[in-house]
Design brief:
This protein is globular. It has five helices and 27 strands. β1 and β2 form a beta hairpin. About 5% of the residues have low confidence. By secondary structure, it is α+β, with helices and mostly antiparallel strands.
């Protein structure tokens, strides 16, 4: 199993199966690895494990994320031993161990002078590019029926969505609009998709973050800044429920004044888990509960059997443990048949996600029934 140790400055953390993602940044509230350095943005970059590999992506930082002198954008880039990795001006140490795809570590050292000059030049160019006031265009928000806004003395920030109901592995297309209530300097405007789980990080886990407007720029009173945005919903998502809720969070980062923030609650589904749930329902096995683990990698479900199953086979329940394993979906079934077995019967079934998604509900039901019958005949 791949284990990756991360260290930046005096802060350190580990990437593994129990914590496969970390955000590096200056903000103690939203970053899981806090790097208190002026060249590190509040939410600078994200490092995560996927299919045994460590990946990094920039989250719209001012000073950039760099590998071997090349900038990392919002598209993830694979980390590897021997690379020189910098978060702003700070070196990032990455060390691989365990039985994963790689072994070794990145190379630590001082920020090269030519890279520092490149970072400074890029920042100056960005300041010039965004120094003029934004062009105010007609708002598209009126075409979207679900709208929320946050405000203070500095301005009003609105997020508009076509609806408030989404599912895994899709793209959320929305529209945002900031209206200045005073003359302000705006550093940036960002929007995030956040999962808040009762058993997860207190402030929630940020799945995607978009920089919809990079500054700084000057806003006068009543200036209006309309901006479309897109957020990627991950392949595996926890299902909204009593322990889980999802939010789209927007922030207008205003220099030397209070930020303008808005939180938009949304409902999240998981089409893969719900397909399995419906297939069990087609067998007259009624769902008793579905528990989503933090960050949507694992789901535990309990199903109550029909009366004839209880009588004929003495089944108390059928339990499912469902997990995402890269491009595969694993289903662990357990038949709870008290009094008949010394131990409950279990079996495991792995299916490619593409196959599961293309299969009909009847095909999934037939496969699950065959697995249950096989367990009962053992």
């Amino acid at each position: 199993m791949t284990t990756v140790a991360l260290q930046i400055g005096s802060a350190s953390a580990t990437l593994d199966a129990s914590r496969p993602r970390h955000i590096i940044g200056r903000d103690e509230q939203s970053a899981s690895i806090v790097a208190a350095h002026p060249t590190v943005s509040r939410r600078h970059c994200e490092v995560y494990l996927e299919n045994g590999y460590a990946l990094i992506r920039d989250m719209g930082s001012s000073n950039g994320t760099w590998i071997n002198g090349h900038p990392v954008g919002q598209q993830p880039v694979q980390l590897a031993p021997g690379q020189h990795v910098f978060v702003g001006h700070m070196p990032l140490s990455v060390t691989w161990s365990g039985g994963g795809q790689q072994q070794g570590a990145t190379v630590m050292g001082e920020l090269p002078a030519d890279l520092k000059a490149l970072i400074d030049a890029r920042k100056q160019q960005a300041a010039v590019s965004y120094s003029t006031p934004p062009v105010v265009a007609s708002s598209e928000a009126q075409n979207m029926t679900y709208r929320r806004q946050g405000s203070n003395d500095n301005g009003v920030f609105m997020i508009a969505l076509p609806n408030d109901d989404f599912t895994n592995d899709m793209t959320i297309k929305g529209f945002s609009e900031f209206t200045a209530m005073d003359s302000e300097t705006v550093d940036e405007i960002t929007i995030e998709l956040v999962e808040v789980h009762k058993k997860g990080p207190r402030k929630g886990h940020v799945w995607d973050r978009v920089l919809v407007k990079k500054g700084p720029w000057k806003c006068k009173k009543n200036d209006r800044v309309p901006m479309p945005f897109e957020l990627r919903v991950p392949q595996s998502t926890s299902i909204s429920g009593k322990d889980v809720h999802w939010e789209i969070r927007g922030c207008v980062d205003i220099a030397w004044a209070y930020d303008v923030e808005v939180e938009v609650p949304v409902t999240m589904h998981n089409a893969d888990v719900e397909k399995v749930r419906d297939a069990m329902g087609a067998l007259d096995l009624r769902v008793d509960s579905i528990e989503s683990k933090p960050m949507g990698q694992q789901f535990l479900a309990r199903f109550e059997p029909p009366a004839q199953w209880r009588t004929q086979w003495n089944i108390d329940s059928v339990n499912l443990d469902m997990q995402y394993l890269g491009t595969n979906f694993q289903i662990m079934l357990e038949v709870d048949k008290k009094g008949a077995f010394s131990k409950d019967r279990r079996t495991q079934y792995n299916v490619e996600l593409s196959t599961l998604r293309q299969a009909s509900l009847q095909q999934v039901s037939e496969q699950l029934l065959a697995l249950i019958q096989r367990m009962l005949s053992l």
